[in-house]
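Hi V.,

Quick status before I head out on leave. The structure for the redesign project is tokenized and pasted below; the design run finished overnight.
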């Protein structure tokens, strides 16, 4: 595979982001939900009003609110009560998951490529659940944002598949044969990797800086270290650690994961502000969190 020159790669990434209209766009419902959640004068009633007019999204939110992930013991059918169960701020994560992810996977499924998007999404859900658990352990103020960041950290893989399915298929095949790093194979083919592609599109879609940064930097060294780092750096570090842990718990069956042995595990823990011992002590709880989060896999079936 011939390596792409830096200047050509820069032009290619720019062309790919310019072709944003050819990829799934953010639904108006999600835009309105994100606006309401960020508006201090809005509340749960406003959110319920928006969700009710989007029947597919409303059905999925009802299903999620009644799932074991939120401890559902009684049948809840009212959207306002579902929002109360899930949590007003948590609706940001849920809305992003149920709209952006579903749209991307539908497009990939219809695109004729060979990407095992279901296995990739299972991995993404696991990373989201682990990032949320790690954030709680680290005392972060918004574990739900960590969930969103982990959930969509590999968005760039979907983007590359939609942009160039044949090329990406060769990239995955090359990586599986060589045993090298996926990001290296991607850079050789495109001049940039899935992390850079994900960040580029996150910025076009105007996602929060914490999400864009976690998409773009979760494979990049060195990570900012410890509790003294600014929050965006902590988000990146926790997503990187969650990605590592997800690959140790259940290696990717999509051939799109990475070999944990290629990572500096000690460094990943330190950057997240946690010790290896702290994380190992919580592994049973983390595995349970991943198990419960499996509801998100089924909510995005296409």
């Amino acid at each position: 595979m011939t390596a792409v020159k830096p200047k050509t790669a820069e032009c290619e990434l720019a062309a790919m982001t310019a072709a944003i209209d050819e990829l799934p766009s953010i639904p108006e419902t999600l835009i309105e939900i994100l606006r309401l959640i960020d508006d201090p004068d809005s509340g749960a009633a406003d959110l319920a009003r928006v969700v009710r007019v989007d029947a597919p999204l409303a059905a999925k939110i009802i299903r999620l609110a009644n799932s074991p992930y939120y401890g559902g013991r009684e049948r809840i059918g009212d959207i306002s009560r579902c929002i109360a169960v899930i949590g007003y701020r948590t609706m940001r994560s849920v809305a992003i998951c149920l709209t952006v992810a579903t749209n991307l996977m539908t497009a990939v499924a219809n695109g004729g490529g060979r990407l095992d998007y279901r296995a990739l999404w299972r991995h993404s859900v696991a990373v989201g659940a682990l990032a949320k658990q790690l954030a709680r352990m680290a005392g972060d103020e918004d574990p739900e944002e960590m969930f969103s960041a982990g959930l969509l950290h590999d968005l760039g893989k979907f983007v590359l598949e939609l942009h160039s399915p044949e090329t990406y298929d060769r990239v995955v095949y090359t990586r599986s044969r060589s045993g090298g790093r996926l990001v290296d194979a991607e850079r050789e083919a495109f001049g940039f990797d899935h992390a850079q592609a994900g960040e580029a599109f996150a910025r076009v879609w105007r996602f929060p800086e914490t999400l864009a940064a976690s998409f773009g930097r979760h494979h990049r060294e060195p990570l900012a270290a410890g509790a003294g780092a600014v929050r965006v750096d902590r988000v990146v570090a926790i997503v990187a650690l969650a990605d590592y842990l997800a690959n140790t718990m259940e290696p990717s069956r999509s051939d799109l994961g990475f070999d944990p042995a290629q990572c500096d595990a000690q460094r990943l823990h330190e950057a997240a502000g946690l010790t290896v011992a702290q994380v190992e002590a919580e592994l049973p709880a983390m595995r349970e969190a991943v198990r419960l989060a499996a509801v998100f896999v089924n909510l995005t079936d296409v």
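Above is the designed sequence. The chain has one domain: 6-299.

G. will cover questions while I'm gone.

Best,
W.
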